Amino acid sequence: MKYNRILLKLSGESLMGDKNFGIDPSRLQQYADEIKKVKEMGVEIAIVIGGGNIFRGVQAEKSGIDRVQGDYMGMLATLINAMALQSALEQNGMYTRLMSGIKIESVCEPFIRRRAIRHLEKGRIVIFGAGIGNPYFTTDSTAALRAIEIEGDVVLKGTRVDGVYTADPEKDPTATKYEQITFSEVYEKNLNVMDMTAFTLCQENNLPIIVFDMNKTGNLSKLVLGEQIGTLITDKS
């Protein structure tokens, strides 16, 4: 096993599947199946999921909503997704804990670092909702920060593309994929991987990032076993 404790970052948009809004039950079940396979291998799993399929805080200002208010609305959207994922995982027989950056005791625990680590050690899947609890920070930043706090081995960023490319592969057919790239090269080439806060946190704490296609069956399992899937970002040789 290459990775013993992972932080899986999923986008809210990925839960839409072929829909234009909300949660696609078949996509939710697919993710639960993939996560279960990895859990049964003995990997400790923490998850951060976005809320873009419901509401994006950064777009709130365009509709006249205050940016801070919009960010809190976005945090609540991530909690809706986290609750849906928690339900799907538990229906598949897994033990989970949902921890929130803002206090909503009726549905989840507040984030406490030592408690989160203890849950992982006891074999529970820990889902982090509501970001870090403060506006102006993305769920990418949440993923980076929580991964560092729980002493994770890697951030696995599941997307709809199979890695980092020289350009947007959906717009440029000549774009080529990087198998491995350094943090410095990502900066220099101005590649869009994560927001700068999240990216810098990972670099300064020597936390590798792997960008991969979460929608392809088996990719997550192959990754934790050490197969070359997606793009590895690290400054280590």
TrEMBL record:
Q: Which domain of life is it from?
A: Bacteria
Compartments, as annotated in UniProt:
Cytoplasm
Instruction: Look at the named UniProt entry and state the broad enzyme category this protein falls under.
Output: transferase
Q: Does the keyword Kinase apply?
A: yes
Record's GO cellular component terms: cytoplasm
Pathway(s) of this molecule? Pyrimidine metabolism; CTP biosynthesis via de novo pathway; UDP from UMP (UMPK route): step 1/1
Give the Aspartate/glutamate/uridylate kinase domain ranges: 4-213
Q: What family is this?
A: Belongs to the UMP kinase family.
For this protein, the record's HAMAP family field holds:
PyrH_B
Self-association state and partner proteins as the record states: Homohexamer.
Protein name according to UniProt: Uridylate kinase
> Where is the organism placed in the taxonomic lineage, from the top?
Bacteria, Pseudomonadati, Bacteroidota, Cytophagia, Cytophagales
